[in-house]
Design a protein that fits this description.
The chain contains four helices and no strands. α2 crosses α4. The termini are far apart. The mean pLDDT is 83.
């Protein structure tokens, strides 16, 4: 998963800059639709392809902070 999601899991979604928020949503959607080629190369390196569900869960937790 992206470094900003993995290493700053305590950081609230609204505290990310707008570009990072957009990237979180885009990466999440690409993971949910199994469209990994849509994820940027720098973020794709950080994704554990053997455990995609755990990665998706981290993204969902971030997004749920603002979409309820």
């Amino acid at each position: 998963m992206a470094d900003y999601v993995r290493y700053k899991s305590n950081k609230k979604f609204v505290n990310y800059n707008l570009e990072s928020q957009a990237e979180i949503f885009a990466d999440y959607w690409a993971l949910k639709t199994n469209n990994l080629q849509a994820i940027s190369r720098k973020n794709l390196i950080n994704i554990d392809r053997n455990n995609l569900q755990a990665t998706i869960a981290v993204y969902e937790a971030k997004i749920r902070e603002v979409i309820k």
